[in-house]
Specification:
Blueprint (H helix, E strand, L loop, with lengths): L4 H11 L5 E6 L2 E5 H11 L4 E3 L7 E7 L3 H10 L4 E6 L12 E7 L18 E7 L4 E8 L4 E8 L2 H11 L3 E5 L4 H10 L3 E5 L8 H8 L10 H18 L10 E2 L7 E2 L1 H7 L14 H5 L5 H12 L5 H15 L2 H12 L4 H9 L5 H21 L5 H9 L4 H10 L20 H28 L5 E5 L3 E7 L12 E5 L3 E5 L1 H33 L2 H27 L5 E3 L4 E6 L4 H4 L8 E5 L6 E5 L6 H17 L7 E5 L3 E5 L12 H15 L5 E5 L7 H17 L6 E5 L15 E11 L2 E10 L7 H7 L4 H16 L7 H21 L2 H19 L10 H14 L8 H16 L2
Length: 901
């Protein structure tokens, strides 16, 4: 037996996309066969059936309706699969023999542009990586097909730098050379969930320059390294081969140097929670969550890029700060600007759909509605004088010609499908108007036919209908056959209890109506294509407008958060000094009750206060303090106001953090190994303009080993003349406080703690001087360890501290406890709940007394702050300007809040 013609055609098509799941169009379904069917049925939970294919065994088969394909495609792409779409390339009714079919598009994780798959405020990048081992260099290129972004860079090969750049973009798909070192691949896979596409070396070499020049007319390969040319060319080649359509919106070749932006390594991005939190990997709880008050999808994506790539150019940072300040100083105009931005759709992705020929008429109306708001935005910009606003005003294209075309041609409420008609406005094209009138006139004639025939025949149940097989017909039930005038109708179809008829006049009108309708649909589609092509010619202008609007939206967002959170405008300089007065953590203060966050100062430089050695107990706020310093610097270099009363920020080139660590058991790395790898990366890559945050270096090993390593790291940072950078170093090793005075630039700081009997209260205030103990047992008590464990820990600690010998007598300490343990457990079991409650209440009263101590130099706890806030609020009430109901509501609110204290 031989394969059937259809299955032969399927296998021929499949040969060209072996690494894809082939969606093979058969009528109204996409069918999958053999291994593809088995994979798809499992991943999509479809019923696996079979089809006779000419072989002894039936071919495994499953299918999906073509109109629901996007849902299934999204699910497969999210799992990392590639999909090849094979369509019918001719009308089956006109085909001779088997219908001609071919692949019209290959969908991959990095090239899928369906709106249901993409996140509005996040780019969908595909990346190409090219490594030249002979030159010891690499190149990276990134593209977002939905928006037209195309960025690239190159440098000497350093895997940590490669990982850091990938962490900025987090691509969905990565193109690599076949034979690339598996160690590099595994390093990338550890930090990135992208799918990998391996391509032969020849793919990175053949026809590359011609492809680049064809896409970017001004591209000159002599200006870039051969690595970069191969990397960019391969990415563009892959995108063109998979999309099989023009990509006119990818028209801006953006090269950047790694040193053009603040470098933040992948570990630091994760520790600082710039765009997602560490726990759920969601936006909430991240810096982006605090800063994103954008009104457009374009602005949301742009702000994410700003956070991922803070600036290092002082002038550029200052220009953004001045623009934000001007918005804050002109609140009425800013409100008008926000209202206008809310009405703007995603112009970037609409332009991408126009370029890829996938835009529909409704989306063009969305584009028109967006362009309609541009003149108002430009008018608002005319009132501003900052350098950035003036540049935006000068370069903002109002796109009047594009708006005019869309306004004159496209209906306000057109069909979603461009092949169903109902797209073109009346008056735009005479032939469309005539066909539309013929269609309407014919349908009016048919509508009146039913009434006329009822009157002539006297058959009240007579009706005129239509279906695609028989066209228009007159239907009469069997009970009325005797009333049909002889020779009036021509029988067309017999039903169980009725007959369907036609008349010569009805057939003639049917031909006119259907002919007009078909011609109208085809004509409207042709006109729509012409309009789309006219608009596509203006892609670069629309992209420029979209870019300016997105940047303006970002500046607006920065102004909103500055106003709402009482941020200050930082002073930017190159003095190698960072001074922050009453600084706060931008995220933490949003997560806790209003007014309860304890602010802190910092002064750090490269001379007398170069390395701040911070000691104090866990849970006291050391890590929060360190993170807020880094986030304040990042926000300032984005061009944002910062959470402080005053801030002087020196431009940093790199930020490194080593805060927290965990076992990487899958990779065979312990906590200590991960910690040492991170510290090593910091010391190798930091410069004298960097900011380093180190938390508990050496804690993953024995005390003396850890102390020695921490000591050596501090010496290296302070004595290495090429490094000697601004550093915050938190530690539990109190012995390190002796380094102040021994090493130039080391200064001791600690977290203030108040002791109340056997209890402690964290003041969350960083003060000058080192801590004398770590309060570890007190922290354990706060965490809820059993009282027996706490008491025994204190007893052991006391014995160890009092032991004057070099070795602690472990056996002696253990022996003294054997007879006491069971007795204590028995006593503990007998303590009733009432006594426990009394004890807790007494402890609470002690803490309250401390909180109310007016002689305390610092704020004590959150309840004290809340009481102070309520008193201030009561004192500020203007009772004479309140209605009785407002006064009642205010009193109710105050009573409710005081009951919780």
């Amino acid at each position: 037996m031989g394969l059937t013609p259809m299955m032969q055609q399927y296998l021929q098509v499949k040969e060209g996309c072996k690494d894809c799941i082939l969606f093979f169009r058969l009528g109204d379904f996409y069918e999958m066969f053999f291994e593809d069917a088995e994979t798809a049925s499992k991943e999509l939970e479809l019923v696996l059936t079979g089809r006779d294919c000419g072989l002894e065994k039936r071919a495994p088969m499953c299918g999906i309706p073509f109109h629901a394909a996007n849902t299934y495609i999204s699910r497969l792409v999210n799992k990392g699969y590639k999909i090849a779409i094979c369509e019918q390339l001719e009308d089956p009714s006109a085909a001779k023999g088997i219908v001609k079919r071919g692949i019209i598009k290959v969908i991959t994780p990095g090239t899928y542009t369906d709106s249901s798959f993409l996140e509005d405020n996040k780019n969908n990048y595909i990346m190409s990586l090219y490594i030249d081992n002979e030159k010891n260099s690499f190149a990276l290129s990134f593209a977002d097909i939905s928006t037209g972004d195309f960025n690239c860079t190159d440098a000497s090969l350093d895997i940590s730098v490669v990982l850091d750049e990938i962490a900025k973009y987090m691509p969905k798909e990565i193109l690599i050379q076949e034979g690339l070192d598996e160690k590099i691949c595994s390093e990338i896979k550890e930090r990135c969930t992208a799918s990998f596409t391996k391509l032969p070396e020849e793919f990175f070499l053949s026809n590359i320059v011609d492809i680049l020049k064809g896409q970017f007319p001004n591209f000159n390969e002599k200006e870039y390294s051969s690595d970069l040319v191969r990397c960019c060319g391969s990415l563009l080649k892959y995108v063109i081969e998979t999309q099989k359509t023009s990509l006119s919106h990818i028209n801006n070749f953006q090269y950047y140097s790694i040193v053009d932006y603040l470098s933040i390594d992948s570990n630091s991005r994760r520790n600082l929670e710039l765009t997602e939190n560490l726990r759920e990997k969601s936006k909430k709880g991240s810096l982006l969550w605090v800063m994103d008050r954008t009104n457009t999808a374009m602005g949301g994506r742009q702000l994410r890029r700003w956070i991922e790539q803070p600036l290092v150019d002082k002038t550029a940072v200052q220009n953004r700060l001045d623009a934000v300040e001007e918005l804050l100083n002109n609140l009425p105009l800013h409100e008008d600007l926000k209202d206008a931005l809310k009405e703007i759709y995603d112009i970037e992705r609409l332009v991408g759909k126009i370029s890829s020929k996938s835009v529909n008429a409704k989306e063009l109306i969305s584009l028109k509605a967006s362009i309609e708001k541009i003149p108002g935005i430009k008018n608002i910009l005319s009132n501003f004088t900052s350098k950035l606003h003036l540049e935006m005003y000068k370069n903002l294209d109002e796109l009047e010609d594009v708006y005019k075309i869309l306004d004159e041609a496209i209906l306000e409420n057109p069909s979603i499908s461009v092949k169903e008609g109902n797209i073109i406005k009346e008056g735009f094209n005479e032939e469309v108007d005539e066909l539309r009138k013929a269609k309407v006139h014919g349908k009016e004639w048919i509508a009146s036919l039913e009434n006329n025939e009822r009157e002539v025949t006297g058959i009240k149940s007579l009706k005129v209908g239509y279906n695609k097989v028989f066209g228009y017909y007159i239907e009469i039930t069997k009970s009325n056959f005797n009333l049909i005038p002889e020779g009036r109708y021509i029988r067309k179809q017999t039903l169980a209890n009725a007959e369907r008829y036609i008349t010569p006049e009805l057939k003639e009108m049917e031909d006119k109506i259907l002919g007009a309708e078909e011609k109208l649909i085809n004509l409207e589609y042709d006109i729509f294509i012409e309009i789309r092509e006219k608009i596509e010619a203006q892609v670069d202008r629309m992209q420029q407008t979209a870019r300016i609007v997105s940047e303006l939206d970002c500046l607006s967002s920065l102004a909103i958060i500055a106003l709402e959170n009482n941020f200050c405008k930082p002073e930017i300089n190159n003095s190698e000094e960072i001074y922050i007065e009453e600084g706060r953590h931008p995220v933490v203060e949003k997560m806790i009750s209003s007014g309860s966050f304890i602010s802190n100062d910092i002064h750090i430089n490269r001379t007398d206060e170069q390395l701040l050695l911070i000691t104090g107990p866990n849970m006291a706020g050391k890590s929060t303090y360190m993170r807020q310093v880094a986030l304040t610097v990042i926000m300032a270099q984005i061009g944002s106001f910062v959470p402080a009363k005053k801030a002087v920020i020196s431009i940093c080139d790199k930020i490194f953090t080593r805060i927290g660590a965990s076992d990487d058991l899958a990779a065979g790395k312990s906590t200590f190994m991960v910690e040492m790898w991170e510290v090593s990366n910091i010391l190798r890559n930091a410069t004298n303009k960097s900011l380093i945050l180190l938390d508990e270096v050496g804690r993953g090993t024995s005390t003396y080993d850890g102390l020695s390593i921490a000591w050596a790291v501090i010496e290296y940072i302070c004595k290495n003349k090429k490094l000697k950078c601004k550093t915050l170093f938190a530690t539990h090793y109190h012995e390190l406080t002796k380094l102040e005075g021994l090493l130039e630039g080391v200064k001791n700081y600690s977290v203030s703690v108040k002791e109340v009997g056997s209890d402690i209260v964290f003041l969350h205030k960083i003060i000058r001087g080192g801590a004398d103990q770590s309060y570890g047992i007190e922290v354990a008590k706060l965490a809820g360890l059993p009282i027996d464990v706490i008491d025994r820990a204190k007893e052991i600690l006391s014995r160890i501290e009092n032991d004057k010998s070099s070795d602690v007598n472990i056996e002696e300490i253990t022996d003294t406890s054997k007879n006491d343990i069971q007795d204590k457990m028995d006593v503990t079991d007998k303590v009733n709940n009432k006594n426990e409650i009394i004890k807790e209440n007494k402890n609470l009263e002690v803490l309250k007394e401390v909180a109310l101590d007016k002689n305390a130099s610092e704020q004590i706890d959150f309840s004290y702050i809340e009481r102070e806030n309520i008193l201030k609020e009561i004192a500020s009430i203007d009772i004479l300007n309140m209605t009785p109901m407002e006064g009642f509501n205010k009193l109710y609110d105050i009573i409710k809040r005081t009951k919780t204290l």
